[in-house]
Amino acid sequence: MLIRKLFKFENAHIVRGCSTRRCSHSIHGHSYKVELILEAHAFDNGQMLYDFGLLKGGPRDLIDAFDHAVAIWDGDDADYVAACKRFSERWISLPVSPSAEQFSRLFFRLVDTLLGLTDTVNGEQDVRLHSVIVHETETGYAQCFREDADNPRMGLIALDRIVFSDAITQAWRDPQLFEKLKRGERLSNPASV
Ligand SMILES: Nc1nc2c(c(=O)[nH]1)N=C([C@H](O)[C@H](O)COP(=O)(O)OP(=O)(O)OP(=O)(O)O)CN2
Fold first, then answer.
1. Could you report the predicted ipTM of this complex, rounded to two decimals?
2. Check whether domain 2-186 has CATH 3.30.479.10, yes or no
3. Neighbours of 93 (CB within 10 A)
4. Pocket test for ligand 1, best of 99, 134, 138 (most atoms within 8 A of CB)
5. At 31, which helix (H) or strand (E)?
């Protein structure tokens, strides 16, 4: 069985090298919708696959980090990167360009890492991230499956190449969340939300 939880955020970017000139040569924004799709074949103590409320903890924090922020490819022009960081306090530096495709891979890597490090406490059974859909517009989306997330032909998304600005991490309930993910620290779900 699959379940799906939807998240939303507003983000600005440039996607260098793409065919659409407005996309590759001008900073622009999108109202993104992100679908996290989870898979399992048995239920928790509440006869749910995974309580939607639990996804409003760490997974939502990681996605909400991108809200009202600028996503920067770390291989972009150095002057552009410096200007983004100078004039926007909320920025994320990425090892890949911020296309819908790469956003879907990025969120897969982040949320999959978080879920893999999280000890469940309510009888959840073998829950795994099935896929992530990122809607960039009303008409276009990308969907990342597990085999896409680590596909070197699509560019490696190493967590230590992702940088969230201080304004972003300080807004998290746990400002150390991403550092813990990078260290592979075990986390635990709350007993109730
Ligand atoms: N495969 C992809 N193609 C495009 C991406 C992308 O991330 N992956 N991104 C863009 C631009 O960011 C652009 O803003 C969105 O493109 P488009 O779908 O053309 O946007 P519209 O709102 O103009 O779409 P309509 O269907 O005409 O409303 C470009 N391509």
1. 0.94
2. yes
3. 18
4. 99
5. strand 28-39
Selected catalytic residue, list 35, 136, 138, 144: 136
Structure tokens belonging to residue 162: 């992702």
132-187 pLDDT tens trace: 999 999 999 999 999 999 999 999 999 999 999 999 999 999 999 999 999 999 99
Q: What is the DSSP letter of 88?
A: -
Token pair for 46 = 């509440």
pTM above 0.95, yes or no: yes
| Token pair in block for residue 151 | 């596909």
Per residue, the 3-state secondary structure of 18-82, as one string, reads CCCHHHHHCCEEEEEEEEEEEECCCCCCCCCCCCHHHHCCHHHHHHHCCCCEEEEECCCCHHHHH
pLDDT in tens, 3-59: 999 999 999 999 999 999 999 999 999 999 999 999 999 999 999 999 999 999 999
| Extents of the domains making up the chain | 2-186
